[in-house]
User: Fold these one by one.
Assistant:
Number 1:
Amino acid sequence: MKNFLEKVGHDIQAFKSIFDNIKDLIFLMEEDHHSFRYIYVNHSALHILNLGETIIGRRMEDVLPKDRADILIKKYKLVIYTQKTIEFTEHFKTEKGTFFGETSLSPILTKDGTCKYVLAIVRDISKRKQDEQQLKENQKKLQSLIEHNGDAVYELDLNGHFRRINHRATEITGYDKEDLIGKPFVPFIREHDGEKTLTHFQRALQGRYEEYEAEIYHKDGNPIQLFIKNIPIVIDGELKGVFGIAKDITTQKEMEKILRENEEKYRLISENAFDIIRVISPSGYVKYVSPSIQKILGYSVEEYVGKSYLKYVHPEDVSILRKRLTDIMNGEKTPVVEIRVLHKKGFYLWLEITTTPVLENGEVRELVTIARDITDRKKLLEKLKKAAFYDSLSKLPNRRIFHKQLQAAINEAAVNNKKVAVMMVDGWKFKQINDTYGHVTGDAVIVEMGKRIRANVRKQDTVARIGGDEIAILLPNIESQQIAEEIAKRIIQSFTSPFFFNGTCIHMGISIGMALYPDHTLDMNTLIKYADKALYEAKEIGKNEYKIYSATE
């Protein structure tokens, strides 16, 4: 890797440090006659592919199976020849199973335009591929469940025309699929049940779950008594049609019970294999829980079954679940609920829970719940909320929060007859630091600026990053200008100590411009403008100086 370092520059160690902390697999390869030699492999690649450090310096065909090495060498040669990035997907067996990766090969050009090195970045998409395969299997299982269901299962469009029927529907009615697909269902209903059946269908189009009995005509003209369920098909909030499940209730009643229970439990388990499935008694005790409980919450099935469904729920969320159980027992439909549940290791996870009652003779016999881990989604939402108000680098409030809090401070000061100070701060020769030491060091300097300023203001003060190396300080509710000056002096004093980063000693400095409400203006924007003007004058004086706005200057 030494020759590579000499060619691409001294900052490669910084990039190596970054690459070693990236989850993607990263390889740096050097052209070696008709092959390529491993120059660098990051920690993720060594771990996931179970490679040792001895791979460094070896040629590709000495590490990989010959057929795979031949394929990859051709792709690497293409990158060297065209000097263009190529992307492809590959999969291969490892000791840990099949690995799927999205690979990007990028040429690294030297100053003279030659290319001897290729940077390979491989994103592990094994989990995604597994999920896609699981989805396909679930879809096949659902289709199999419909087609081989003991009841007639059919799908109606929004106009009441048959779109799909299973084989059992043809057995019950005597009609072939070709006789029904595309036809409206109304003509097959006996006259005395026509209006009622149409009303239930229209209610299903309004999003309601309907159950009723009706008589239809068999193809031979004989009436058939059916127990029918109409289920609205809602995808992403949009009604797409209606599912119908029809049972010939002249046949064995016991079969209805067995088929309904087996169908419901099998569908839930097969379609939600990665979620926690629970069966809860009306008294609130867990009768069954899927094995996924251990993967998500850390408890074994034996530890969980037989306990109250509220046992591991966050105390603040217990009342929510209790109300849901009461509502369901009273026959009400309940929405999806988000609650916190205790992991076996002692921390809480956010779960999204859907509850469905299992009815027998019109009474709730048990409850089936599906719980999905949404902790990452909750964290992401929190990050997105924070990103709207905080600077991602320094973690300081941004301009939006600063303006909001400044206006609030002015309003409060007007009532309490107090002062508000605004300071605008610029780093001393920040561009020179950036140009000399690079953007990574420049970013570290900005973070350090925020820390030092934050450490020398009051708890109620606001320190915000406005842009670049410009930081704004809000001092609300102060009695005099002297208080603001004392804080400015403390801040300046804190910048007299050098900053050490990655073995480099950096001498920092700042300039501060200050304006006060109501001394200089009553308007928020003008107050910021005056502080900016004072900052400009402070920078003219020199390093580590502050200047208070003066209308006479």
Number 2:
Amino acid sequence: MATSSSTDKEERQVLGFKTVKGLERHVQKLQLRRIMIADLNMSSDMEGGYIGGRVVASHASSYSQGHTLTIFVRDESVSDTQDDSCQLLMNIDGEIAEDMPSLLSEEFMLFVSHGLIMLNEVEFSQDHDCCLQVKGPQPRVWIVHKSAEKPGFFQRQSCKAAWFQKQKKRLEVEAAEPKETSPPIPSAVQDSQQSTQNADNYSLPSDYNFPPDSAFISSADDTSTASSSSSSNESDIPWESRQVKRGDTGRKYVYKNLSEIQSGDKKMYVYAVVKDFTEPTQTRGTDVYSVMWLIDESTQAGIKCLSFARSVDKLPQVRRKGDVVSLHRVYSEVYQSCLQLINNRFSSSLRFSGKVGGSLKAHTSALSYTLSREDKQRVRQLRAWYLQQSRGHCIKVKDVTEESSFGLTCQLVSVSVTGDCLVLTVWDGTKPNLSLHTRQVGKEDDLRTVQALKTVAYGFTYQVAIKDLSHCTPALKPGSILLINNVTTATIDGQVELCVNDQKLNDCIEVLQARDYAHVELLETLQSVSGPTTTTTPHAQAPYITIATLHQLTEVPLRAHLRVKMVAICTQSLEDMVRLHCTHCGLLEHLTPETNVNAKGLSTLPCPRCPRKSFPHCSYVFQMTVTDLSGEVVILHVAYHEAAKLLGKVHPTNLYRCQTPRYRLLQRLNHFTGGNNPFSPQTNQPRPWIECCVVKIKYEEAFYHVLFDTSITMDTV
């Protein structure tokens, strides 16, 4: 039995050992001698020897031809970490790779015999001139690790086969599930987006099945100017679901400042802040690349960094300006008299959020990485430094004092021209402590205004005057987030006016994009200025999207989570919100004082159109117009039991019996509008935020947005 077990062990291509001594005893029986990596050349005898060392990095890939492991090993006896001749690249393919663990960290040692020696023709490679190809039935692979001989350590698992099995199972489940269809809507509904008269005939089945939670749209798809603050959610990054080994492994790296980098430097380690970046682009070959401009305390001019990889998910996944990146094993070169860094597929990178006080979780495509206490401290330092550099002079309007120069981060509400001045009406969620001068703007002076934004920002707006503007009018769009520099104060009639005396508007006004942290932080502030929302929803964990994004999405049915403000109810009175509804034929009729309704809300007369002669019952059926920070508006349909959730327990039948229910219903509508007339878009008081869920459906080439799972808060009740 012992002889059979020993023979079987020698025939296996991949073996594990707990100690190096155990491996040495095994190779002595095979009469193999060790070849040091520094001594390897094209004429080395790999049939009578073996080579290997401690694992530095590893990467697993699945292609159509099979499974591949790319592993870097280094002589464990060499202490000089800068000696490139002691690091060897191994490519392990085929069944051998499938029999090996998919994750090899620095705790492993790997040795190979009978491998094929090849020239390392990888461009920009900084390792040994030779590499090793391990493929076929001849090579033998030995792994040294304390758990290498435990049961189940080596299990034949093809990543490619497992992926196909998972996809096959998913397709079988999808095929078995019935497809969802949009509910029928009576043909009397023509265009609810343009006319409120359709509320008389609008009918949605009370037993309508809303799409599942998976149909909620993520804010990661939000491409509008005023995107939701939830777009900064880091959990949408797909490669982070992979199991990543992290922690302080004890290895120490020497990081360079950007000003210390010289042409020809190799294998450098850098911490920097992303000043700007480009989206991934396909090269002329099979690779993809992206460009970053990096800065740190040593230089604000920045240095260009080009990243190359085989796929987009292997590139540094920068999300916003101000992100902190850690680059390992990059090198420098001069191109067109400019120094630049090269981050190729043999390099690695970590990306950290640039938000001060944010999470220190590293985002990477690498299977393992080192993150020590010193690394975290360095990330905090770069965050604080960049915040001071980029927005050190920016303040809120509540902090403005006389005779000062500063910058403002704000949202544009309207643009108008009075005389030779361009007047920007903006808001930043705070109110000034000084008495600010307001220029009178007529309708003929108004260039661009979004009335919905004026409703959202009511009570918080102020003006910034751009003087001496005689040669151009900038194309500024209401709803944009602006960074206005060089703002000064002037005194007019005892009041303070905010003004910019600069004709170079490109220098004093910058339109911030959604990938700027200042953009996201301002939206978070603006959404909280009116206090808590007056509604609740069980889907609060779903990310917000803007109405502008909702209009862009065409796949239906879908769910969306919105944070909006009510503009007006699309009816003239409380009575117009109530209908007699037949659940069988969908008939909707106005409820009048002459209509006979019993205590249960059922009509005493049967439906005149329904062949079953059923008795219609009273229901709330109405429409309301809402808006958000994007400046867009949408009409929401509210009906049946969903309307009862929103309005509370005020039965529509009681509206015609006494004044108390009418007063109670009107009081709740006033809570949604902040005391403004709920049937008029005119704004006299700041309007509160409403958190709601809507489902988007399509009927006869028109889209409809239906409110669901939105309830009035108990405090309001």
Number 3:
Amino acid sequence: MVRTFTTDGEGRVRPTASARRRGRTKVTSSNPVAEEEPHQEVEEAQLDDVHNIEVDDSGVDGYPGGPIDTSVLKTYGDHVAGRLWNGEDRGELRIFNNGKKMKRVIIDHAEVQRLVEGSGLLPLLKCSYEMIDKGLISAFVERWHRDTNSFHLPIGEMTITMDDVWSLLHIPITGAFFTFTVFDRDQAAIVLSELLGVSISFAWTEFRVTNASHVRFSWLLDLYNQRCGEKRWVEAARAFLFCLVGCTLFTDKSANGVDVAYLECFRDLDSCGGYAWGTAALAYLYDNLCHASLHHIKTISSYLTLMQAWVYEHFPSLRTNSCKLKSKYKEELPRSIKWKPKRDKGQVIPFRQTLDIMTVDQVCWNPYVKHRYVWPFQDASLYRGWIRWGLKMYAHLPDRVLRQYGHVQSIPSLPCEIIGHSTTPNDMDVMFTQYAIHLVDPGPRVNDPSDCVDGYMEWFHAISHPYIIRQNPDTSRDTTSLPRVMQILNTLLNKQYITPEGIPLVNELMNLLIVENGVSRDWSNVETYKRKRNGGLRQTQ
């Protein structure tokens, strides 16, 4: 969820109640909640196994495919997932990424490196991906919900947290938030003159090229090299850092430049290291994800290296054909450096399908265990409260993704409960600096990485839209013998004794039962048997 203290000219506002009603229809069926058991393994899972499940919510307001209970996803009415469910596919998003430009952003002078190190941003020089997979990014954007600031998957909620930023980028996540002013061109020219030593007329010449109070990266890098040649190290470092954050953390849709507003962050190079750069970048990523999740939006920017690296870490099956492991990686380095993306095919549908049949066993919930030995966990990562980029505030809600911290997932409180904690940017800044009193109590540690409390998955499927692809039932299928098949299957399962040779067949029949009944089987007490050498059966301990 977001709170904004400025007028947003791009229409990033919550839909009105009447708009939600216009896009809402009733859901009727016989089972209010239906999903797979979180620990069940289903071999050869097919899309129709998880989608042809009827949901009964007679007389309850909701949406086709969910959510049934709209108390959490209050702004679902204009979400891209709702349009996809109704067959309106916007396709892949257009991606804005400056990874290739980072090849030119290098430091050749020790004087500049010392100043850049003091900012806490030096690790960014090695993190950026040249190639961003627009199919992968688009598939996850379709599952992002701005009411919870999380991705909604068939196995529950997941999100990019402060801990992910800390581990993937190695930049500060605690400290102060910065407030910047969007300058007009006269003001921006003065700032460039004061901080980079250029003339007003030279600044205005650049503004006429960009047609905004922006400067091009090429212009900045030329100026940086010029200041290094003149040994004006402070101005050179400012130009370098200004270019660095524009190419990485705060990438926008201009594609080739950065807003002069960010230069103010480097007025005092001695104090800029005190900013919570990583948390501000996370808020900016949340902002772009919220915007891109609206059905009519076709583009996305922000530091998508962070998002793509997060996917690589948490979803091993998705990185199989998308990236390769760098053999020379060491845990002392940011985890994003561990992966090198391959050239993408730019298709969202394969990722969309894979996510729709995702099981808990295909997720790496806590991928940074080895990394902790050299880069320890920060308690601030459990902060529940507002984080901000400029004057836009976003809720950081670790209680919704406790399994990512190695704890049992409970049913979280409503996101809106955070609103009562603060009312102004200053109050929110105080709340963040006092993060120690706003930490989530994570509860018990997990035994199995996907552990959740009883009732969590039922609750989640009621308040969420966990599947993206809507499968039409095959009305031509012959179902005359289906009742007998189901009867036989239930008999076999209730016996609890199945030979190994029969497991694949039972799995297939079980999938059929899931489709018809909307329920799955608990296999925890099913015992397998092995044949004795004399042809008999003996129980396996």
Number 4:
Amino acid sequence: MDMDENKPINLYTNPIGYYGVRVILALEFKEIPYGVQILRVTHCEHLEPWCMKLNPSGKLPFLQHRAKVISGSSQILEYLDSVVLDHRVLHPDKLSPAWQRLRHFQNLVDSFYIGDLVGGCYMYPSYVPEPSLMDRGVCKMIRDSYDTMAARTKELAGKHPEMKQIYETRLVKPVLCKPTEEEFQSILSRLQSICDLAENELRGSEECGQIYLFGNEFSAGDIYLLVFLKKLTFLGLRSHWQSGHHPLLVRYFEKMLDIPSCTKALGDYEDRLVKLKSQLTYPQKSMESEATNQPVKLYTNPVGYYGVRVMLALEYQLIPYDVYTITILDFEHLEPWFMKLNPGGKVPVLVHGKTILSGSQMILEYLDSIVHDPKRKLLPVRESSKWERLGDFQRRVDDLPMVSVIGGCYKYPTRVPERGLMDTYVCKHVHEGYLGAPSCAKELARTHPEMKEIYNAKLTNISDCDPTEEEFENLLRDMKGLFDFVESQLKSSKEDGEKYIIGNEFTAADIYLLTLLKMLTFLGFRPFWQSGSHPLLVRYFEEMRDIAACRKVLDDYENRLVNLRGHLEEKTSAQAGKLN
């Protein structure tokens, strides 16, 4: 292949992105080595400053190869043909009739934005003839994420003035995914036109003894068509091509699944969607059964910042649970058994019956769905003003990447105002643990070849824990800004006669804040919020300790950290003894 193997292709895409699947199918078919960086659009990860600097359009997918960054699926497919000249070319000669036919077909397929189709399926369900994987719940989640994107873009433009122009460019033409009924009907009409055109093309190919859409070679046209048909099936619109009017199209789709790259790319696409749906939908009947008969299992790092959020929620909501310790410093989160349970290799992970969830936010949403006592609910009503405030607060807290803060505390100890339980000694071990994770994952990929793909995916998604001094300074500035914001929020709450962050009820926002304050205290940053400039925050923290669940979880958190320090000192002493 005409490629520099030392500089592989990296694909940045949404896990269930329609356009990204096109590129994945092309890469698989052309047998090009590549890495995948998942960017969850629902979490606005594609809008983060590092990503926008790399790809100012903020659109997915985009591909990075050597010094080039290419966005847009059709442009990426053409680029792949240009760098791999001798292997499975996807585009015919530009002077040939096949090129014109392919281009016409592509333009028709891309004559509408797929997000508008998804939004329409949610808004006008009477037009969706059958149940599907992408049901109204999934479509609503995707559509609602576009509202979040607009708010997040404005927020980031304010936080990063040096990138204001880039972010404001995105706001000029916002994508809303809220078509009118007339616009949605027009899109459905185009779906039918695409299927009709594909049937005619296949009829012409069959008459010429050809099996693909535009000849005897698999091409980009086949990729556009296969991913299009798969998407219609997911959305409950399969009848547009499987109603008996397109027999060649039905037979063609079945034949294409005999191609290994098609089977893999489309099968993985479906698996990712199934996983997403399992995280979003919780049938009430089975939930009640599981809540009654099966305890919740929590797999977490003993001093894990995000795991403490989940423990606090479990304690507050009085949900029985068992804890299984996964020690990050010993790379237990990378062990094969755990990677099979949770291919992302991240903690915390919650298992409840057949439900497996990772990520503290997703877990807290799940726990709220199985709690029947309204006084123990942690989440406000969706789409309410309090729901929006919670989302905004959570994003502000999670904009402070804790692994980078820990790495900075170890590398630049003079910037830490006081010595905490997690001093330079502890941070050094935690930092080295994160730095050692890639080597461990590579070795496990070698010794467990059947899981090589899972480990390779993990290698593309390991958190950055090694900030430069300038980056650490920016983190400290953001930390101080966050405390100022919280103080102003508490002042507003007090003026409104409210006790908590977003109202008169204890919510997930309070969990995010309490665990943050405790972690930063451990790291030596207590003067940032207890120096006299944040009196309401100090009083708030003291009052929250009157809540039994908060007191128990935060005290246990501190005890585990004390035990960790003792364990590390014993380990260091033992290693020194061996050397002597």
